Known about the structure:
Number of domains: 2
Helix content: 25-40%
Bound molecules: zinc ion
Amino acid sequence: MDLVIQPGMTFYQISNIFNIPLQLIILSNPYKNPNTLRVGEVVNIPGHFLEKYTIQPGDTLWRISQEHQTSLEQIYAINDVDLYQLRIGDTIFIPKRIEEDILTFNELYTFDRFEEDLFKLVTTYPYITLKEIGQSVMNKPIYEVVIGNGDKHVHVNGSFHANESITTSVIMRFLHDYLLSLSANQPIRGVDMKQFFNEITLSLVPMVNPDGVDLLNKGLPENEYYRELVVDINKGRTNFNNWKANIRGVDLNNQYPANWEIEKNRKRQQPSPRDYPGRAPLTEPEAIAMAELVGREDFDRVLALHTQGKVIYWGYEGLEPENAQKIVNEYSRVSGYTPIRYVDSHAGFKDWFIQDYRKPGYTVELGRGTNPLPFSHFNKIYEETLGIFLTN
Ligand SMILES: [Zn+2]
């Protein structure tokens, strides 16, 4: 919500009045200098919204504050009017702390709904950063959300594969619950999220393959060229449940320069719903955006969420660092998923990350069943995955 600075107001004072960590207020107002706030300047207060209230006969501000579970100080801070001159019928604003869900999770995401939810979160909690790290073949933004202020940099992505988009919902739900936990001052499974915030800078790319996800969850593209292309690649079939690739039939998780040639030689030789590595490594904009992100940022650890199988792949050609095993054992303990060190597979995002950076990289296969997993599995999968997110 917006707050108009009144004479003498400081971020420190606002932090006390609204019981929000000072740091979150400062991070929510990146272009303001906390030492030179001007009267009349508008600042962002995270995790709150404003409710309009019309003064009734017999009202006192004290009673209004009691009935709305707020404080007189908060009402004074928000309403830049002479509150003693209020008359019946006048309107004031009551600040409300968000303590309930602001997103609903009841079906798989289309790109539009995903974007709408992201905007809702970043407006409500302006201390998170939303960046566009690239665009899909059909020019949809690929979004990265960054939350936290710690020295440890952890990256998590989802929906590399089109028919695995329940992973986007899992990441969004974690982000939502994390923000709500900071706002409401409630730990998650005993983890103090304020402390988590100060220890970990978390990078999330919840939807790497938005065109592919829309093909599954929205339907055939409106664009005629791509509509004909995908039907052609799918051999005339209009059921795309088997589709993992991007919109032009390249499997994004076979695009990375980690023994790419091996996959090139033994996998599909032309655009396909799955398993076509492309004509060269890193030809697809979605795969390039992820490689560039990793190249720019100094991630200590990456996790790529896929479905299904309840397993965690964690090694690549003996190049994984020593601490990778300790971490995966903890992931396994909290999720019940089985760690698998080596598998005969190359050219994946985590393979390339381990090979090039010699840091821990994981492919986590969430849930069990036939892809696309139905949304009815969501709550169970989220509960299984939550501990992995919370592992420091
Ligand atoms: Zn996958």
